[in-house]
Design brief:
By secondary structure, the protein is of the alpha/beta class. Among the domains are: 5-106, Arginyl tRNA synthetase N-terminal domain (Gyrase A, domain 2, 2-Layer Sandwich); 185-245, no CATH class; 437-552, Isoleucyl-tRNA Synthetase, Domain 1. 48% of the residues lie in helices and 12% in strands. The protein contains 19 helices and 15 strands. It has helices spanning 5-25, 54-57, 67-82, 108-121, 151-169, 185-201, 216-229, 240-260, 271-276, 279-289, 325-337, 355-364, 401-408, 410-417, 430-433, 441-459, 476-498, 502-521, 529-552; strands at 39-40, 50-52, 91-97, 101-106, 135-139, 173-180, 267-270, 293-296, 299-302, 313-316, 342-347, 372-376, 380-384, 387-388, 426-429. It has a five-stranded parallel beta sheet with strand order 7-6-5-11-12, with helices on both faces. Strands 1-2-4-3 form a four-stranded antiparallel beta sheet. A hairpin with a 2-residue loop joins strand 8 (293-296) and strand 9 (299-302). Helix 1 packs across helix 3 (67-82), helix 4 (108-121) packs across helix 17 and helix 17 (476-498) runs antiparallel to helix 18. It is flat.
């Protein structure tokens, strides 16, 4: 799906030409995905402005032709159709490149139109309503409330929040949700750890549990508990009171960190409330009624192999306790029950093997396999002074998200977490991230935004309220900026479809680089008033698009640096 404008017209041109060629070839019946054009932005400048791989997608229908020959056949049909279409003045030429891409080159007249579009739409440039009404539930971070957020959680927070903004930009109704695992063995361990530290503060000497949480934050929680309750609970054996106090303390800390990181959740969902509601038993009964439950060795099992999992999974252990899978199934069933048609979960890499069983569960419940998308956010390795910082929450050796924000700032931290694809491991070098230099990507982009503000302040003449002569923008650097500006709505769409915020970040780097290259070679305000006017309009549009992109990624828009 595309936002409209020339992309929509190109899609119609491709579809029409493909239909005519396949009719001439008397091709066999096509599968739906084989004839749906997908548009891309070529990586190389010499490959044009828009590209499609439709010749390769539909190669089965070509009657044995090679992808390149089939692409040439389609391109010829498009050129014939183009001569009679409304795109005639917008597409300068159509070329084919191996292994079968069809590339479209836009005319200068078409590129100039983007300036009017940006100035007219301002903050809405790049936003569309193509997915209006689609309800998406996006669950991310969901760190167990047993300690502060670490940089691994920070990366998930940056990815999830940026992705929610991107999906909202194409018209989706996105609900951000945090799943609170507020019960179970890890929470009991936290309660025991707080109890031991509390008793120590009250003068009771005893060994700390070997599996306890050793972070200094446990000492802080115990101290707060003692300040509030004195020695009232010094002999308390039941850890519930300590667990409840620790849960609230850590959740409050997590919420504050996320707020300061620019992340706000719409829903905080409690696993304990899920269990108490009886929804877990209801979900398992539904699976049982469908024939996907069996009993063996005293345990209750889910026939997940019916849906492609490599083995069946235990739901209720022989001691009567739930495995992690049972509440997760009920939780996802509850999501669908709240009216969401599409679910997106962001998990850590240690959950990769969990995907097949969760996909099996939603299919067994009666929902489409593709209605759940799972994003695995790879870990981040932290460096300081050229050395790796080791992290372990339980051992108390970790760097918190708060510490990173305090050291490098929110903007730099968010940007750094998005600097690689979600599926790629991230090396986070604290020293490089906080550099105030053009080598730092966030500084490089924000500096472009601030530099344009200074130009506009100097000129006070960047409005399109009066006419300007776009045809004066003939320099290679000016035309390249126009090409990049025109790509922004398509970039947002591609980023949303691929669930990959990095695509927007990479685009902003390219736009900032194009601006800096132009600025270093040409004066914006020059001796020619008409050219100055046109260039001021151009750089103002760059500012608008940089701002829209940075806003999407949750990064601020400085006017001075």
């Amino acid at each position: 799906m595309y936002h409209g404008g020339i992309e929509k017209e190109v899609v119609l041109l491709v579809e029409s030409s493909l239909k005519k060629v396949l009719a001439d070839l008397k091709a066999p019946a096509a599968k739906p995905h084989e004839t749906v054009p997908a548009l891309e932005i070529p990586k190389e400048r010499s490959h044009g402005d828009i590209s499609t791989n439709i010749a390769m997608k539909s190669i089965r229908l070509s009657g044995g032709k090679s992808p390149v020959d089939f692409a040439q056949l389609l391109a010829e049909k498009m050129r014939d159709t183009l001569a009679l279409s409304s795109l005639k003045g917008d597409i300068e030429k159509i070329e084919v490149k191996p292994p079968g891409f069809i590339n479209f080159f836009l005319s200068s007249a078409c590129l100039y139109k983007v300036l009017l579009d940006i100035e007219r739409r301002q903050e809405d440039y790049g936003r569309t309503s193509v997915c209006r009404g689609k309800k998406i539930q996006l669950e991310f971070v969901s760190a167990n409330p047993t300690g502060p957020l670490t940089i691994a959680h920070g990366r998930q927070a940056a990815i999830g929040d940026s992705l929610a903004n991107i999906l909202a930009a194409i018209g989706c109704e996105v609900s951000r949700e945090y799943y609170v695992n507020d019960e179970g063995s890890q929470m009991n361990t936290l309660g025991s750890s707080i109890r031991q530290r509390y008793r120590g503060l009250c003068g009771v000497k005893e060994d700390f549990p070997p599996d306890g949480y050793k972070g200094t934050y446990v000492n802080d929680i115990a101290a707060d508990f003692k300040d509030k309750h004195g020695e009232k609970y010094i002999e308390e054996e039941d850890i519930k009171v300590f667990r409840a106090f620790g849960l609230k303390w850590i959740l409050d800390d997590i919420k504050k960190d996320l707020k300061d990181f620019g992340v706000k959740f719409d829903v905080w969902y409690s696993q304990e409330s899920l269990r108490k509601s009886g929804e877990i038993d209801k979900a398992l009964k539904l699976l049982d009624n469908k024939g996907y439950i069996f009993r063996s060795e005293g345990a209750t099992w889910f026939r997940s192999t019916k849906f492609g999992d490599d083995k069946d999974r235990v739901l209720i252990k022989s001691d009567g306790s739930y495995t992690y899978l049972a509440p997760d199934i009920a939780y996802h069933l509850d999501k669908y029950g709240r009216g969401f048609k599409s679910l997106i979960d962001i998990w850590g890499p240690d959950h990769h093997g969990y995907i097949p069983r969760m996909k099996a569960a939603i299919q067994a419940l009666g929902f489409g396999k593709d209605s759940l998308s799972v994003i695995i956010a790879q870990l981040a390795t932290l460096y300081r002074g050229g050395n790796v910082v080791k992290m372990s929450t339980r051992a108390g050796e970790f760097v918190t998200l708060r510490e990173v924000m305090d050291e490098v700032g929110r903007d730099a931290a968010r940007f750094a977490f998005l600097m690689r694809k979600v599926s790629s491991h991230l090396d986070f070098d604290l020293d490089k991230v906080k550099e105030q230099s053009m080598e730092n990507p966030v500084y490089y982009i924000q500096y472009a935004h601030a530099r344009i503000w200074s130009i506009l302040e100097f000129s006070k003449d960047a409005s399109l309220s009066s006419r300007f002569k776009s045809g004066l923008l003939k320099e290679a650097e000016e035309l390249w900026i126009l090409r990049i500006l025109r790509q922004f709505p398509l970039v947002v769409m591609i980023s949303a479809n691929s669930l990959e915020p990095y695509i927007v970040l990479q685009y902003l780097q390219d736009l900032a680089a194009a601006f800096h290259s132009f600025y270093n070679k040409h004066r914006v305000v020059c001796d020619d008033p008409d050219l100055s006017k046109a260039r001021l309009v151009l750089v103002n549009c760059v500012r608008i698009v940089l701002a829209n992109g940075l806003r999407t990624l949750g990064v601020s828009l400085p006017k001075k640096m």
